[in-house]
Amino acid sequence: MHRPNVWAMTDSAPLRALVADDEEPALAELVYLLSRDERIGEIRTASNGPDALKILQAADLDVVFCDIKMPGLDGIDLARVLSKFASRPQIVFVTAYDEHAVAAFDLDATDYVMKPVRAERLAEAVRRVVSAGAPSALTPQDDSDDEVIPVELAGVTRFVHRSTVRYVEAQGDYARLHTGQNSHLVRVPLSTLEERWHDAGFTRIHRSTLVALAHVDEMRVDGGRCAVRVGDDWLPVSRRHTRELRDLLVRSTSLRG
């Protein structure tokens, strides 16, 4: 029987959760137990690591209840990727294997729950998540940390470092990341990236474009129209953003000098 990817409760609760497990019975049982906990609100599901990453890119979630051994990208690797996110959900590993506990807590996992899962043990894990605080209250990573963005290409999940992104174009509810050689479509609105990457030197130059100031090679104004060169690409700058961009470029040049 087909089960929808998003589960909702009528009684709203603060925690938005993702459950990731490649075993259908285990996934269904965990969703059932969590749905009975009044501290849990929306529950989303994924049957593998790459699908979990897609969901985490598209939505701000508070906690991931994650199996360790999954196809494509295991739970430990998923946690490593999430640790590079500017704002990441808490991780609770739910697994039948105890040998990964040390690695899990090295990755700042909130809890490590052994299968078969008992309701009271899972309730304790939720309590720990609540006590630790929602991710929105967590201190963001230092700006020197380079965020990693998971992208999918031909069914393979790859990881793009934010520092390699030269500019970003809006494409509906998606954004296209342009690096030196390639471009990658991710399901994240441009407005979200603008807010998340502002402190990393990205600024909006057009309603549909963000640019990394560090990758701007030239700025030109011709006939009242402004454009910047990023590598081999010329990008238009709207009138409302021209003055602010000029000031930012002058400031960043002086700081680098």
UniProtKB/TrEMBL annotation:
**Any one GO molecular-function label of the UniProt entry:** DNA binding
Q: Where is the HTH LytTR-type domain?
A: 167-251
Superkingdom of source = Bacteria
**What Pfam family is a match, any one?**
Response_reg
PROSITE patterns the UniProt entry points to? HTH_LYTTR, RESPONSE_REGULATORY
Q: Which residues carry this modification: 4-aspartylphosphate?
A: D67
Keywords, A to Z, come to: DNA-binding, Phosphoprotein
Signal sequence span is none
Recorded hits in InterPro entries, A to Z, give:
CheY-like_superfamily (IPR011006), LytTR_DNA-bd_dom (IPR007492), Sig_transdc_resp-reg_receiver (IPR001789), WalR-like (IPR039420)
Give residue ranges for domain Response regulatory. 16-130
PANTHER family recorded for this chain? REGULATOR OF RPOS, RESPONSE REGULATOR RECEIVER
- Identification of the protein by name: LytTR family DNA-binding domain-containing protein
Instruction: Give the source species.
Output: Kribbella alba
Q: Taxonomy-wise, where does this protein's organism fall, top ranks first?
A: Bacteria, Bacillati, Actinomycetota, Actinomycetes, Propionibacteriales
